[in-house]
């Protein structure tokens, strides 16, 4: 039996009508050896399916964790964004379609800023619809779009020399898995890596060039709870994803912020029992002597004897406001989405404005924040939540701020003031029951 391929999680982001649905379908079909002239899904489709989709490359088993399109889906983007290793940005080469996507009314700028701030630092840009009548596989059109996108993403924080730009036609399979003969002018994309330069011509090769981060198994256990079930003849089953550390049967775990202590009876993934669950694993595990009512989505599971997660009293964060019609002032009370939790919060202090390009302070104690500005603020949760610093636990240290039914800011946590609760008595009491 061959070696199991490494898991690569990608997120596809695109303006509506850019060919996202067609490209996704063709990648899956080509991976399975299916070739056809006309895809059953067309560019005019508006995708609402949220289920992960899989296909394989030479190096990876690729999971598409979410297809984004409408603004209302920015809230949903938080969960897959924190799980993605790479973002695949699709832009249309068609006249006006690209220009509209890059305008202030377009969605592309917002999506790219969102995924970068939420920790997705690897990007592939597919310039689609090169076959369109007003494009005709034009080298000039490709180069102009590449230049404009490069100028934008460098302001966000991406390095264009580390981004593969690939001209494609998804509907004709051009430069997806095989090199197209319709664009002989396109010699290759080039990526800068620590060990040198990587080159290629297709989306497939660009995906194989993505670097998957190492699993943080040596860090303290952090698992965020997605769901809780009551299973007949078994009991309470918790579903969640491990971000750091290791979970094993018979471990004593703590669920925060409620500080409930429980024993892990068994672990399953894809209906198979596990002796050990590691970072990246989405699992279900049976816990003993805990009722369904005492656990909630957004809780953090940790090891009470090894740096357990604790409820946050307040935290310092750096945010970027990108979609707010009026000034934001001290006392602002939006909704904060972090990992699987969402709670009301209050901006209790505006500390300083930052020049995002230089990371230097340009104003201290500002009276207000406007769209486009980067600011360091102090936030107080108005409901119990566990968060961590972005430096120590990136997944648990980045968040989205929503108000008026839309995302208005994204941020990362720099410092956390935690509510410390002694747990020795709770651990001893539970252990004695066994």
UniProtKB/TrEMBL annotation:
Chain segments annotated as coiled-coil in the UniProt record: none
Translation elongation factor EFTu-like domain boundaries: 235-300
Pfam annotation, one family: GTP_EFTU
GO CC field: cytoplasm
Domain of life from the UniProt record: Eukaryota
Keywords: Cytoplasm, Elongation factor, GTP-binding, Nucleotide-binding, Protein biosynthesis
GO MF terms, alphabetically ordered: GTP binding; GTPase activity; translation elongation factor activity
Protein name: Elongation factor 1-alpha
Classification of source organism: Eukaryota, Metazoa, Spiralia, Gnathifera, Rotifera
Compartment annotation: Cytoplasm
Family the UniProt entry places it in: Belongs to the TRAFAC class translation factor GTPase superfamily. Classic translation factor GTPase family. EF-Tu/EF-1A subfamily.
Residue ranges of every copy of the Tr-type G domain listed in the record: 8-179
PANTHER family attached to this UniProt entry: TRANSLATION FACTOR
Residues covered by the GTP-eEF1A C-terminal domain: 314-414
């Amino acid at each position: 039996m061959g070696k199991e391929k490494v898991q690569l999680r990608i997120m596809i982001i695109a303006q509506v009508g850019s060919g996202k649905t067609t490209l996704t379908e063709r990648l899956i079909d080509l991976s399975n050896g299916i070739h056809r002239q006309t895809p059953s899904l067309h560019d005019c489709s508006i995708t609402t399916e949220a289920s992960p989709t899989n296909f394989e490359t030479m190096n990876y088993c690729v999971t598409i964790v979410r297809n984004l399109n409408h603004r209302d889906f920015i809230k949903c983007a938080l969960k897959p964004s924190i799980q993605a290793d790479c973002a695949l940005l699709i832009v249309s080469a068609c006249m006006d379609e690209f220009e509209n996507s890059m305008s202030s009314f377009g969605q592309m700028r917002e999506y790219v800023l969102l995924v970068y701030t939420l920790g997705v630092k690897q990007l592939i840009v597919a310039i689609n619809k090169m076959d369109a009548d007003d494009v005709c596989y034009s080298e000039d059109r490709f180069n102009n779009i590449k230049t404009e996108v490069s100028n934008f993403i460098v302001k966000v924080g991406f390095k264009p020399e580390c981004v593969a730009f690939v001209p494609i036609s998804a509907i004709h399979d051009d430069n997806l898995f095989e090199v197209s003969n319709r664009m002989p002018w396109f010699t290759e994309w080039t990526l800068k890596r620590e060990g040198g330069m990587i080159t290629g011509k297709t989306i497939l090769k660009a995906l194989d060039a993505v670097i998957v981060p190492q699993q943080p198994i040596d860090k303290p256990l952090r698992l965020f709870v997605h769901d809780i079930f009551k299973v007949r003849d078994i009991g309470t089953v918790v579903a969640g994803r491990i971000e750091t550390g290791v979970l094993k049967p018979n471990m004593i775990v703590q669920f925060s912020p409620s500080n409930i202590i429980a024993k892990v009876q068994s672990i399953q993934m894809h209906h198979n029992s596990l002796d050990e669950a590691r970072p990246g694993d989405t699992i279900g595990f049976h816990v003993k002597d805990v009722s369904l009512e005492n656990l909630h989505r957004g809780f953090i599971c940790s090891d009470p004897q090894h740096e357990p997660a604790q409820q946050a009293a307040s935290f310092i964060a750096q945010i970027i406001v990108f979609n707010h019609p009026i000034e934001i002032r001290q006392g602002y009370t939006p909704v904060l989405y972090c990992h699987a939790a969402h709670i009301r919060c209050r901006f209790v202090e505006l500390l300083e404005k930052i020049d995002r390009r230089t990371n230097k302070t340009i104003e201290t104690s500002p009276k207000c924040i406007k769209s486009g500005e980067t600011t360091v603020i102090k936030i107080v949760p108005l409901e119990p939540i566990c968060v961590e610093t972005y430096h120590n636990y990136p997944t648990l240290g980045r968040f989205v701020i929503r108000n008026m039914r839309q995302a208005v800011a994204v941020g990362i946590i720099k410092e956390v003031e935690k509510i410390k609760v002694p747990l020795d008595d709770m651990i001893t009491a539970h252990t004695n029951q066994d």
